[in-house]
Amino acid sequence: MSIPDSAAPIPYRSSRWPARFLIWTGIGHNIVGLLLPHYRKPMIDAVKAGFFNQFGANVARSNSFWFFFAGVNLVLMGKIVDWYLFPTKDDVQPAANEALQRQGQDLKRSKRVLPRLLGTWFLGIGVVGAIAIPRSGFYLMIMQGLALHLA
Known about the structure:
Pfam families: DUF6463. By secondary structure, the chain is mainly alpha-helical.
């Protein structure tokens, strides 16, 4: 059984920059949320009101919650990508760890690759989002998708 072209490994070694790009985009996303009053104020109001069950009936609070939650998810995705490409010695089985040491794997490049589908999803989300909301940060998602394709 042959592997379809879309699932075939890409012949390159990954660097850390796509993961870090995702992490910094998520951090930047939440910084923007803190700077813009229409995201910051509803979140502060919800926290002051006890946070629990403060978002469902209030559209502004719901929007604020999902804005910040999206930023946190971008950071999480970046950490997962980094962990996948560059597992630490505590993350892998001893035999795999010995193999990495024999190969002399450095900290800047990884022989592991990301599935192309991940980059395709980010591109798709970015394009649809940029069309739906032109004055937004969805253009960064397009760049994220390209970065993940080139990782």
